[in-house]
Give the backbone structure.
Amino acid sequence: MAQPQPHFPQPTNNGYLSENDDTENQASFFKEMRGNLMIVAILAAGSTYQAGLNPPGGDWQDDQGHKAGTPILHDRFFDRYQTFFYCNAISFLSSLVVIILLMNKHFYRDMKKVKALEITMVLDLFSFMAAYAAGSCRRVSSSIYVFLLMGAVFIYVLTLAWHHSVLRAIANRFPEHFPSIQNRT
């Protein structure tokens, strides 16, 4: 009985994969990226929605000097509340935008559109982190640690993006050595 042989794409005479193999690889990449972005966007939307309904610190329960239902953070730390509110709103809305765009299967087939979605997700996640930092700490010393951690994550993401762009530039400069990287632009 004959065993099925694995299929390995064969390079063509110019060193690149055939058009069909590249299209299959791109379709697989877009499908996986779409699923990953959808999961993250749904989780961020759900978390930010919940945080908007129940702001950090809770609400005033009675009208003893404060209006019942007003967030305590709003009255005690107004600047922190404003930061939390706007960052949470940005994160929630950008999550909804990503979810709506990903529901259209034709939208994510172009690499530039996928990159725009990735950038929107980065904005979403950094807004999410800023809302967390503004709402979770009351002391300045604790806040400094959280914002330093956010800065480290931001620097890491920028370094990763820069490193990726440098590698892509090298691959574009020497296509005979990096045919699979060069084709994904």
In short: Residues 20-53+70-182 form one domain. The chain is about 70% helix and 0% strand. The two ends are 43 Å apart (CA to CA).
